[in-house]
Amino acid sequence: MNDLNLRVAALKVCAHPKRFAELRDALVPLPNTWIAAPHDFVLQFAAAKSSAEQVQVVKDVFYGEQAQDHEDVAHFLADLLLASPLKHAVRNQLTKLFSDNALAKQNASPHRRHSKEHLLEALQQSLGEMANSLAVITPPVSHERTNDVFVSANACLQNFPFGREALGKQVHRFAPLLTTALERYWADICDPTLELSPTRRNELYLYVQNALRFLVSLLAEWSDKLRLFEDQRFPGTSNAVAQKVARYYDTPWDVRSIAALLIGHLARFSGTFKAYVEDCSRPKAEQDVPIQMAALLVLRPVDYTENATLALAILKRIVAVSELKSTVTNLLVFLSKHLFIYSKSLGEMHAHLPDDQKLLYQRILAQLQVFALQNISSDTDSVRHMSSALLHQVLQHAQAAGQEELFQVVYRQFEDRAAYLNASCMALEQLVAVAGVSKSIENCPSLFGVIFPRHLGCEDCVDALFKAMMVSAHKTEPFAEWQSRWFGLLLAAIRVPEKRRQVIEELIAQAVQLEPTRLAQVLLPDDRLPLSCKLAAILGVRQLSARRQNLLRGMKEEVEQALIGLDDHTRLLALRFLVETPRPSELLNADQMGAIELYVRHNANNPSAHLRQLGYGLLQKALKRVHFGLVEYRKSRTPASQEVLQFLIRLIRTLAQNLFPTANYGRRWLSLRLLRDCLELSEMVGITFSELGIELPTEALMACLGDSYEHNKVLAAQLLERFQSHSLFKPDEMIELLLSLRPSDSATGAFQLQVYCKASRVQSEMPTPTHGGTIHEPLTFRALQWCLQHLREGLRLAQLDLGEAAKLNPLYGLLFASRHLLQQLKLKELAKEPQWRQYIDELVTMCLAVSSVVLPVVSSASPEGHLPETCDQETDQPLTNVLDRQLSREELLQVRTTPQMILLCAWRSSKEVCLILGELVQRAPLEEEEDEEQQQQQGDFLLSRAQLEAIGEHFLQLLAETKHRGAFEQAYVGFTMLCRRFWHSESVRLNQLPGQWVDEAMAMVSGQEEWAGKGARLCATRRSAGMPFMLQALVGTELKLGTHATLYRCMNRLLEVCERRTGGAAGITARSHALNIMRALFRSSELAELVTEFMARGIQCALDGLLLAEEWAERNSATLLLAALIVRVFGVERARLETGELHVRNRMTGRIFFTRYPQLFDYFHAALQRESEQMDAGGGGSENASGKRRQAVQLEAMLLMLSRLYPSSLEGAESTLNLSEFVPFLIRICHSHDLMTREMAALVVANFVTQEQALAEIRRIVVELKALQLRLKNTEAANTKLNTNVLHGQLLLLLHLHRLVRWTRPSLTRMQLHTLAELAAPLLQHDACAFSALVAVMVAAMEDAVEPGLLDFQLLEQIGVVYLLNHKEVQSRCQQLGISNRFYQIFGLHLHRLRGISQGIVLHIVEDLAETIWALDELKVELWLYILLQRSLSEQNSLVSEQDIEHFEFSRDIRRYFETLSREQREEVGQELYESPAVRSSVLHMMHMIKSSKNSCWSLQLAGRLAALQTLLRDPGLELNQLVQRCSEEHSTHQEAGLLLGLRRLIGESKMLERKHWLPMLNYAQRLVHPGQPVYLRHQAAELCDSLARNHLRDQLVAGTTDVDIGLVGRFSGLVLLLLHDDAEWVRHRAVQLVCGAGLRTRSGAGQEQEQSAMAPLILPSALIPPFLDTMIGKLTFDDFNMVQRLVDIIAEPFTTADAMELFDKQENNHYCERNHVLTELWDARGRADPRARTPTIPTGYQIFK
Question: Which residue has the higher pLDDT, 177 or 1018?
Answer without folding.
Answer: 177
